[in-house]
Amino acid sequence: MGDRDTSDSTQRVACGLVPFEADGQPRWKERAGLTDRMRYYGVPGVSFTVIEGYEIAWAKGHGTLRSNGDANVTPMTLFHAGSIAKVVSAAALLKLVQGGRLMLDEDVNSKLRSWYIPDNEFTLREKVTLRRLLSHSGGLEDGFTNRTPSDAVPQYLTPGGVAPSITIQQLLDAEPGIDVDGHTRVTAIPGSQYRYANADYAILELLIRDVTGKPFPTFMLETILGPLGMTSSTYEQPLPPDLRARAVTEHDHSGKAFAGDRLHIPLLAAAGLWTTPSDMAGFVLEMMDSYRGKSRQILSRAMASEMFSKQIEVTQNPLADAAGFGIQLSGEGKGLCIVHTGGTWGSTSILWAYPETGQGAIIMTNSATGNLMRFEILLSIAREFGWPLEL
């Protein structure tokens, strides 16, 4: 931990939230308390970790694991990271590139064995490559990305304690009886535009399994989670009993707890990570150290720089103007910012960090109703630590 007076700092952050209007506009002149905003949004629990000066400044948990429960959230409480999982998955794939087992610019169909991207007029012009999948520029469209937490829970999600039985291949092919909106296909020239799709990382998960011959959770444990000491993190579903005992219950868009406490998803690389903000902060710090040439534990400086470089322009996004590998990017130089949000049918989260200044935060909630509240907390942290952040 840093030398900053954490008691004063955490108090100011907890009392300095910038409330948002329902349409997402911040009320800049107002301040609100965290407890009141949790009550307002119906968020039972939230946890966040702050990075300052290339180290963890502090970590705090607030509220309870379950609505009306008596078990308190602590920095050791596990949350569903949602799409923040992609950031960790991307680093693991880059590790394979670094080791020569994959190439960023080769056709991924040349290494896939368990499923192939269907060829059509678009792939005849350009191929879907690892670089393009990592940066959501492969031109793919799927039937399971555009649903929102207010939609009915898809049938392929399973309650806590039950492993998903639907396979990635079934989701990609939209097999009859599978609750998706259509099969996965390339609908734009690969490399021509940014298009966010969970199918990108579903295919990357298959690629890892096909190339390494290992189950995805095992590969991630051996490649990232274990080496970085992320002992409160897992891609296993259902959660191992020791981690399940300190994991939150997820709550839907109306604030109701899910039967079975939480939801599991077949798309592990895209959204299957359960973790703590502190574990994620440790990962972010490692990536920033690699980017600065201070560590080679996971990635070389060159590979981390590639991860943090602008691969494709992102338009009409208030948080970012480009995509890197597994992350979104905004700003340049000292103002370079890496971003990723996470949202599921029962959780919300955000990762926000400045590699050039060693600042950042990871915020996680256990309710789909926490979408705006995570940004209210983020703005309070930004003010306390002097970030160049405006939304």
List keywords for this structure.
eight-stranded antiparallel beta sheet; Beta-lactamase; 391 residues; globular; alpha+beta; two-stranded antiparallel sheet
Give the overall form. Answer: globular
- Give Rg in angstroms: 20 Å
Cα distance, first to last residue?
28 Å
Reading off the top of the CATH hierarchy, the class of the domain at 6-103 and 216-385 is best stated as: Alpha Beta
CATH homologous superfamily identity of the domain at 6-103 and 216-385: DD-peptidase/beta-lactamase superfamily
Q: What is the number of helices?
A: 12
Strand composition percent: 5-15%
Give a short account of the largest sheet: 8 strands, antiparallel
Secondary-structure-derived class: alpha+beta
Strand order of the largest sheet: 2-1-14-13-12-11-10-9
CATH fold naming of the domain at 6-103 and 216-385: Beta-lactamase
The helical percent reads 25-40%
Order of H and E elements? HHEEEHHEEHEHHHEHEHHEEEEEEH
CATH architecture of the domain at 6-103 and 216-385: 3-Layer(aba) Sandwich
The residue-averaged pLDDT reads: 96
Number of strands: 14
**Regions with little confidence, pLDDT below 50 for 5+ residues:** none
Structure description:
It is a single chain. It contains 12 helices and 14 strands. It is an alpha+beta fold and 391 residues long. The protein has a domain at 6-103 and 216-385: DD-peptidase/beta-lactamase superfamily (Beta-lactamase, 3-Layer(aba) Sandwich). The strands form 4 sheets. It has an 8-stranded antiparallel β-sheet with strand order 2-1-14-13-12-11-10-9, sandwiched between helices. The chain has a two-stranded antiparallel sheet with strand order 3-8. Helix 1 packs across helix 12 and helix 3 crosses helix 7 (216-225). The radius of gyration is 20 Å and the shape is globular. The chain starts with 5 loop residues before the first helix and ends in a 6-residue tail after the last helix. The model has no long low-confidence stretch (mean pLDDT 96).
